UniProtKB/TrEMBL annotation:
Signal peptide: none
Taxonomic placement: Eukaryota, Fungi, Dikarya, Ascomycota, Pezizomycotina
Protein name (record): Nudix
PROSITE patterns reported in the protein's UniProt record: NUDIX
GO molecular function: 8-oxo-dGDP phosphatase activity
Annotated ranges, domain Nudix hydrolase: 133-276
Superkingdom of source: Eukaryota
PANTHER family per record: THIAMIN PYROPHOSPHOKINASE, THIAMIN PYROPHOSPHOKINASE 1
One Pfam short name: NUDIX
Length: 311
């Protein structure tokens, strides 16, 4: 596993996650194509392509480094045919325990962004196919006399990924049949016991973060999309763990969050969410941050895969 250098600037915290350069040569990877769509929807490592138990519906061309999924329904139900083909390959890979990162478990569905049909595949397998992941993060804050404070959870010790690390107030992967807002409303209840009607009325969509990341553990390369939401809480409303994924919540000042980020206590992509929040709230400004323009650019990158339907 690659060892990251100790961050000294906010830009370093971003680059720990957004670690694929803008001029990266994707031709070294295998492009994944869906039926009747000339746009690549994912990029796969050669070693992943070699290990994947492909079915006949996938045409793997090593010379052109492409993988093309065919429509076995001949246009009668393209989405169902594609979903079935993906699931067969995923089932076979999980059954054979081909990829340690999947750890033999099935997971909820992620939809493929920008696909012309409703095509989805299991969350744990999505990074192997290099498709864009959709996440939703909510920052719940309180306006105090001394300034803004944010409710910060600590992840439970038994979680498979990033145990014991700090996180954004509420966060989750957006399931294939959910909108980002629906994800936030559900996760606010499940993770923090926040009243559903209060969240539905007061949570505000505030933008999106996009980046390309290479995992230091698995070496997989994938695009990531984070929909960000803000929620101001009254001082009397205190988040409480509910579903076992959170060990507890702490109301932290900007200075405390900043120090924790540089100590490496936050789940890495949550640093981006907190930095984005500080920029939008006027806490990070061009006057107090010399990397301001570069920080803003790094929080929103044009991705190499579609995020909208073909026109």
């Amino acid at each position: 596993m690659e060892k990251a250098a100790k961050p000294t600037r906010l830009l370093d915290l971003i680059e720990l996650v957004h670690n694929i350069p803008f001029d990266f040569d994707f031709s070294a990877l295998y492009a994944l194509y869906l039926p009747n769509d000339p746009r690549p929807h994912g990029y796969m490592l050669p070693e992943t392509v070699t290990k994947m138990p492909w079915s006949p519906e996938f045409d793997v061309q090593h010379e052109s480094r492409s993988i093309k999924l065919s429509d076995s329904s001949n246009g009668l139900d393209t989405a169902a045919a594609c979903n079935k083909a993906f699931q067969q390959v995923i089932d076979d890979a999980i059954a054979a325990n081909v990829f340690p990162s999947v750890h033999g478990m099935h997971s909820e569905m992620y939809k493929i962004m920008g696909a012309n049909q409703f095509i989805h595949l299991e969350r744990f397998m999505a990074p192997l196919f290099g498709i864009a992941a959709r996440g939703a993060h909510l920052t719940a804050y309180v306006n105090m006399p001394e300034g803004i404070k944010v409710w910060v959870p600590r992840r439970a010790a038994n979680l498979f990924t990033y145990p014991n690390m700090l996180d954004t107030t509420v966060a989750g992967g957006v399931k294939s049949d959910n909108s980002p807002f629906q994800c936030i409303v559900a996760e606010s209840d499940e993770e923090a016991s926040l009243p559903r009607d209060f969240v539905e009325k007061n949570a505000r969509a505030t933008g999106v973060i996009t980046y390309m990341t290479k995992s230091r553990v698995t070496q997989l390369i994938r695009p990531d999309v984070i929909y960000v939401f803000d929620l101001e809480l009254p001082s009397s409303m205190i988040p409480v763990p509910k579903d076992g994924e959170v060990a507890g919540f702490e109301l932290m000042s900007v200075e405390e969050i900043n120090a924790a980020m540089f100590r490496g206590e936050f789940k890495p992509n949550c640093n981006l969410v907190m930095i984005d929040f500080f920029v939008r709230r006027g806490i990070i400004t061009p006057d107090n941050e010399e990397d301001y323009v570069e920080i803003a650019a790094r929080l929103r990158r044009k991705l190499p895969v579609p995020t909208t339907l073909a026109r």
